Amino acid sequence: MENLKIFFLAVVQGISELLPISSSGHLILFGRLIEMEVSTLLLTTLHIGTSFAIIVFFRKRLFSNLFTKKKLVFYLKILISIIPAAVIGVLYESKVEQILRFTWIIAASLIFWGILMIIADYIKIPRRYKKIEDIPWKKALIIGISQIIALVPGTSRSGIATLTGITLGIDKYRAFEYSLILGIPILLGSSLWEIWKALTIEPTYQIELLPAVLLKIGIVIIVPFVVGYVSLVILKKVKREKWLTVFGIYRIILGTVILLFL
Description:
The chain has 262 residues and is mainly alpha-helical. The protein has helices at 2-16, 23-33, 40-57, 59-63, 69-91, 93-99, 103-122, 137-146, 157-167, 172-200, 210-237, 243-260.
C-alpha cells in the first residue's frame, strides 16, 4: 500500500513540477489526502526524475555548441542565479517546514499567484529577449532571486520565475523555458543535500531493508521522469497564447476549494 501511495505522489510530481501550479503544494495536499506524510526528503528526492526529464527534453539547447563562449557564459549566469535561493533554502529549511506548510497558506498562495498569472497574460510589456541565452546578467540574477519566494508551498518555482521574466521583458514561453533550466541545479542540489543528510546525519536503513528501499527509489525517480517528460511534450504542443490564464484559473479554483473545505 505504501508503494502505491508513493507511485501516486510520483505521478503528481511529474505533472505539477513542470507546470506553474506548485509541485510542493500539490504533493503536501495530496499526501494529506491519502494519509501519507510528505517529508522534505521525499519531496526533494521526487525532483530527481523530473530534473532528468528537463535535461533530456532540452538536451539540444543545453548541450549544443557546448564549449563556445556564449554557452559557457549562459551556464555561468545559471550558476550565479541559483545561489540566492540555494543559500536561503539551506539556512531556513527547518523554518519553512514548521511555519509555511499550513493548508491555508498553500491555498492562499495558489490563489494569489494564479491571479497574477492571469494578469501577466494581458499586460503589454515589450519583449526584448527572445532567446534565453540573451538574458542579461542582472535580469538573470533577479529571476534567480525571485525563486526564494517559491520556498512558500503553493507558489511554484517555475511560475514565479516565469512571471519575473515576463516583467523583465522576456518572451513568455522563453521565460518559462529558462525557469525550467534554472531549476535543474536547484532541484538536483536540494535532492542530493537531503539524501546526504539522511545517509550521514540520520542513517536509518538496514541491509535487510535494501530491496524495499531500492524499489521505492525506483518509483520515486523513474515515474516522475516518464510523466514529466510526457508533460513537457504535451505542453510544447499546446497553444501558448493564453496558457498562463489556464493555469491561473486552475490555481484559483483549487485554492478556493481548499479554503472552503478547510
